[in-house]
Amino acid sequence: MTYMNSAQAIMFLKNNQPFTKDTEEKFEVIKKYNDVRVHFLNHPDPQCIPLFLNSFGEGSGFGVYQLIEDVLMKYSIEQVVPHLITALHSEHIGVRYWCAHIAASFPTPSLITPLSNLLSDPDPDIRRAAVTALSQIEDDRIIGLFKGVLEKETDPDVLEHIQEALTEPKLTSLTPK
């Protein structure tokens, strides 16, 4: 790993909004992305929050995308959620997918609307990630939302995921209004 400062790390993220689909040619760039991740783990700077949230391409980033949440967990819900709400509306499938996963670690009612919008996303993996994130939010509206989606959902894996979420103690203890 070569030394970098926060300005260089921020510039790298700005230049990769979002990454393209995973390819072998991108491996060296993803290695630098991981160096940027490590830099911000050790030198937190809230400027990196929206840049990381909008950096996800299609694929796993060779396993690095899963680790970005560790950086984001260094910040408060108040710092992350406004940027997360924006990213959940992204036109980029990778950004929506990974941000839906990250949303599960920031369970707040302000994420209900953007996550519920993802329940009709064309990609079933995004719908499943949205179900997981929504099931972490302790709000009685979630049960009605899931029941409404059950009637329309056609993907068997998403249906099963919703049914499992409806049996989680966090949701079964709530009574819908």
From TrEMBL:
Pfam families: HEAT_2 (PF13646). It comes from the Bacteria. This is HEAT repeat domain-containing protein. It comes from Paenibacillus ehimensis.
